[in-house]
Amino acid sequence: MLLADMGAEVIVVGGGSGSAPIPALSRGKTFISLDLKSPAGRDAFCRLADKADVVIEGYRPGVMTRLGIDAATLRGRNPRLIYCAITGYGQTGPMAPAAGHDINYAGLSGALGAFGPVDGPPVFPLNLLADFAGGSLFAAMGILAALYERERTGEGQVIDAAMVDGCLSMMAMHFPDWGRPVLPARGDGLLAGTAPFYRCYRCADGRHIAVGALERRFFEALWVGLGLPEPAPPHFDRQAWPAMAERFAAVFLQRPRDAWVDHFVSRDCCVTPVLDPAEALAHPHNRSRHPGLAADRPLKAPVMPMTEEMPATYDPADHTAEVLAAAGLTAAEIAAARSNAAMTEGLPWPPPL
Does an H or E element contain 159, and which? Predict the structure, then answer.
């Protein structure tokens, strides 16, 4: 969807096993159905890839080879093709063929082991970390870089986008800190929820406020804003943190969340509300930047005024015939290539709970 938002024509090939398309992430995509286990279906796929800039696949290593539509085969026909394989564990390594989901990939990267309370199990941020940040965003960045490099070399390349790798890359700032005072353990550290000036607090109405006053000037403004009478103490003194956190917590419990938001709005000390998803969609700042923001209409990001267009809508219809006809296939070839199976055999989203 990110590439479609930037102007790419995106064709999604279904007709076999795999996860169901998620409507919220299907904007701008054209869906077709091919029987990739049949010679006609494979030939149709190859002919599409002959004219494509990029092929993206998310099967376990070896599946595309068994189907006869792997990177070597497709790039042998189209050397300019950029072939991006998105997997959890990568194309190599002892865990490459293993099954997994976001929680597993985040766990193997060390990121999940750093999230959550000291005295409880790790807490994961939905499936945002590995699936989206470590996987899709790194893959999209690699694709864009490969397209740019192709302008210089005339050659495509193979991208091995592993979600574990993306998470490992994002942990680069924190690996050196692990076990040291800044991040001694899960849930303990400057950015892990221990520091009283970088954590969330419960307010009088049960909702929460986010405090991120890391720098000294922000901390001093926070201290004054909380109405504490004495001069602000050295805020990086870890010995003072427990008592300071208790004191802050008691103060924040005196007012509802939005009263604190109004109180701090002009104090410039990094205090914001913790919004639930529905509140975030309705927040004035988000609405001012993205007036059409809605639960079923994810925004286009980043904002790029020179290429700004209204994002395409979700079209779940099957466009196999027209897509293959545009690629030069005859009616008989299209009939032989298309799959009559359901789009997927995987988990639908949302599942019936």
Answer: strand 158-162
Write down the catalytic residue from 43, 101, 188, 318: 101
Q: Catalytic: 131?
A: yes
**Pick from 30, 27, 134, 140: which is nearest to 87 by CA?**
134
Report how far apart, in Å, the C-alpha atoms of 155 and of each of 9, 158, 186, 260, 286 are.
Answer: 20, 10, 45, 56, 41
Smallest Cα–Cα separation from 18: which of 2, 31, 4, 5? 31
- For 123-143, the pLDDT digits (tens) are 999 999 999 999 999 999 999
Q: What is the pLDDT of residues 232-276, one digit of tens each?
A: 999 999 999 999 999 999 999 999 999 999 999 999 999 999 999
Catalytic residue among 35, 70, 102, 131: 131
The Cα 312–Cα 4 span in angstroms is 8
User: Taking the domains of the chain in order of start, what are their residue ranges?
Assistant: 2-172+295-337, 198-274
Tell me, which fold does domain 2-172+295-337 have in CATH?
Answer: Rossmann fold (3.40.50)
User: DSSP readout, 175-212?
Assistant: TTTBTBTTB-BTTBSTTTT-STTEEEEE-TTS-EEEEE
Name every residue whose Cβ is closer than 8 Å to that of residue 258 and which is 6 or more positions away in sequence.
207, 273
Q: Do the strands 198-202 and 158-162 form a parallel or antiparallel pair, or are they unpaired? A: unpaired
Is 198-274 a CATH 3.40.50.980 domain? no
Q: How far apart are CA 155 and CA 149, in angstroms?
A: 8
